[in-house]
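Issue 218. Parser rejects a valid record. Input:
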Amino acid sequence: MSAIDIILVVLKLAGSLAIFLFAMKLMSEGLQKFAGSKLRHILTRITGKPLSGILAGTGVTAIIQSSTATTVMAVGFAGAGLLTLAGAIAVVMGANIGTTVTAWIITIFGLGGSDSADKVPLMPMIIGAISLFFIFSKKDKMQYLGQTVMGLSLLILGLGLMGDSVPPLNEDVAHSIASLGQWGYWSVLLFIVVGAILCIILQTSSAMTAVILLMASQGWIDFPTSMALVIGQNLGTTLTAQVVAMTTGTTGKRTARAHLVFNVVGAIIFLIPFYPICDAVMAISERLDTLFPSIPLIPLAITVFHTLFNVVTTIILAFFIPQIVKLVEWMVPDKKTDEGEEEFRLTYLEPNLLSTAELNLQSAKGEIEEFSKRVLRMYTFLPGLRTAEDDTEFDAIMERIAKYEGITDRMELEITKFLTRVGSGDVSQHASERISAMLRIIDNLESIGDTIYQIAMTRKNKREDAVHFDAGLNANLAHMSELVEKALEIMDGNLHDYDHVDLDAAYAAEHEINAFRDRLRAQHLDALKLGVYDYSIGNAYSSLYAQYEKLGDYVINVSEAIDPSRKHIED
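Output the parser choked on:
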């Protein structure tokens, strides 16, 4: 082949691979949008039994065609307390089984669904024509279904183009490849490494699966080599997850390590009796070949092996989930500073990881819950300012509050940037409304942090000016603080489940705060008239109870942003 011929072959392969990857993205996005918010309900109903998590992970991944998306949802739910780490690991195991559906789609429709003698492949054309009935529908759900069907059509077309782009195997190349497989287990290990590297380069196990199937169907590689590449692909996809997990919190890192443990153990299980397994899988595939006569035997056998690898590994390791939990907890220990959680970090937001708004919003929801926990933690520092025995203790508490205030500012900025990027894409009406609600929530959470800091600064100024409250004023402010803390806890609870917001409790808490504020304001005005305390005391006192009431306003704004249907105005 001349240099120009080689360049043309490479361009054809690259172009057909691009169509295939775009088709996978289109199909996955369509499925995720079509499934919508029901995905999270499937995962959050998981019981403590491993089987429920495995089935949920398998089902969700089979639906949305993205094991990464399923894994990220599991990580987010585990971090939010909706799933245990053991439950998240079970879901990830199921996701490995669910991702084999992609291999079956490629094998059945891509390799066995059209006559290679046709100049124009018939199968993708028919499927593409079917998608037109849905794409032009006025209903969003139907449009998403049409997007999915069109993605399947392009996937088959791209796979066919990839097959047509692979040049005939000449004798020299065949001899070179064959020579690499003459070293027994060393050859198997070599191709495992090659499979892992190629999967990391392609950044998608689905594309790597397609490449392996095409190489086998064209006679470039034999079945043992294909099996080794599949094992390597499974290892390679876990390495990609490790890189992604570097930006997550402890739960995300542990889940990624569990994914690595799963595939490493699976590789060991299948490597020890490697060649007997080759014979067994081929025997099974020969029987299945009667059901799929149009599919080449070796690609069918590869798909069977891919499925067996994940199913058998899951069945074995499902009995050892508690031990895997202990192992990954040892691999990724808890990292706590002396001051607790006073370091800025984003736990759930992983830019460009998920492809649809619905699943990105699950990550944002988890981050907002973390945001709420931060402001509640920040609020618990305030009583210490009144009871501090000396300036050193007081200054230490002020420093912690100031540090948290800076964290709330940065969390608002990062979550806003993330939501803005999500909202700029193709989002449904429901997702658009949810994004708007989340933006209002984080704005008010940041305002809560600012108000807590303002209360702390008022306390600091009062201390520096040697202004002292009597027991009655301190008791009033302590009760006001308790009322606001109760409202904060109700707000935090509402942020965990947007579908079951307790607005009655939120409004009752706000009413108590406003009523007590009115009572304190009336008493304060009477006290000033009677000269019970001087102006400096009165000014500090009125500033504090007014700031607490203002903080309560931001708190109720959060619950109303989640469910604006009953929003009302109360002075």
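Fixed in the parser; the record now loads. The chain has a mean pLDDT of 80.
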